Amino acid sequence: MAHAESRSQGCPASDDLVGWLTLARRFGLPTRLLDWSQSPLVALYFAAQVDKDRPDADGCLWAIEPGYMNLQMMGSRRFLAADEPLVTELVRIAFEPDSRQAQQKTSQAAGKAYAIGTRGLDPCVLVQQGAFTIHSDGQDLADVDFRPNTDNRSFWRRVFRVPRPAKSRVSKFLRELGVHESTLFPDLGTLAKELRSRTTR
User: Fold this and answer.
1) Res. 24: pLDDT tops 80
2) Sheet of 130-135, strand order
3) 150 CB contacts (<8 Å, ≥6 apart)?
4) In the chain, alpha helices (H)
5) How many helices (H) and strands (E) are present in the chain, helices listed first?
6) Which of 7, 14, 42, 44 could bond to 37 as cystine, CB 3.0-4.6 Å?
7) CB-CB contact of 63 with 161 (8 Å)
8) How far is it, in rounded angstroms, from Cα 82 to Cα 100?
9) Contact indicator for 105, 89 with CB cutoff of 8 Å
10) Best CA proximity match to 122, nearest among 2, 4, 40, 3
11) Whose CA is closest to 134, among 123, 152, 119, 146?
12) Strands 157-162 and 130-135, how do they pair?
């Protein structure tokens, strides 16, 4: 927070801790936020990217039904606002991770994750139709046991495999639909990269 304001004109207010986590996440810092997209095409774009560390790996497209996830996690299907107590408790832990009180709250909320409303602090959130979950710890949602609920819609998560050999075809198809890097990251650097690639083809 101390070093960001001299580098960006779009910093949140000093007490807007969710805003700071969103900004940090946007620039690649690890946070308690996990970003999702409400668009299956946008999500598929990211699932079809080649992993530089594991170039032969398949991709995964994860899907969640956030209302039913929240129902299991906190007993209500509603989305949480950024200023609600359940959210602010998890956010504050991120800014005071070593305090005894933060450690106690982390243990009480172990394994919890909540779907929360988005904030339009960054154009990428808008164009990528972004959404967020906020997590109490590093537990993977894939490891959370499903609990049956009254209408038997307990399957709030799904995963779809994108085979490595299919990634280039999927990316080409998405490009034809207008889903590519320069439409998902609307900044001058990405636009310049796109224009350079057009002139070298």
Assistant:
1) yes
2) 33-37, 130-135, 113-116
3) none
4) 17-26, 40-47, 66-74, 85-95, 100-108, 123-127, 167-176, 181-184, 188-199
5) 9, 5
6) 42
7) no
8) 24
9) yes
10) 4
11) 119
12) unpaired
3-class SS at 113?
Answer: strand
- Residue indicated by tokens 């996830």: 69
Token digits for 91?
């956010």
Question: Tokens 């590093």 appear where?
Answer: 138
Tokens read off for 98: 């070593």
- Above 60 in pLDDT, residue 154? no
**Closest by alpha carbon to 73, among 106, 114, 33, 105?**
114
pLDDT tens per residue, range 110-135: 788 999 987 666 788 888 998 899 98
Which letter does DSSP use for residue 37 in this model?
E
How far apart CA 130 and CA 36 sit, in angstroms, is: 6
Q: State the amino acid at position 37 in one-letter form.
A: S
Token look-up 């057009």 returns 198
The pTM of the full predicted model, rounded to 2 decimals, is: 0.81
Q: With a cut of 60, say whether residue 80 has pLDDT above it.
A: yes
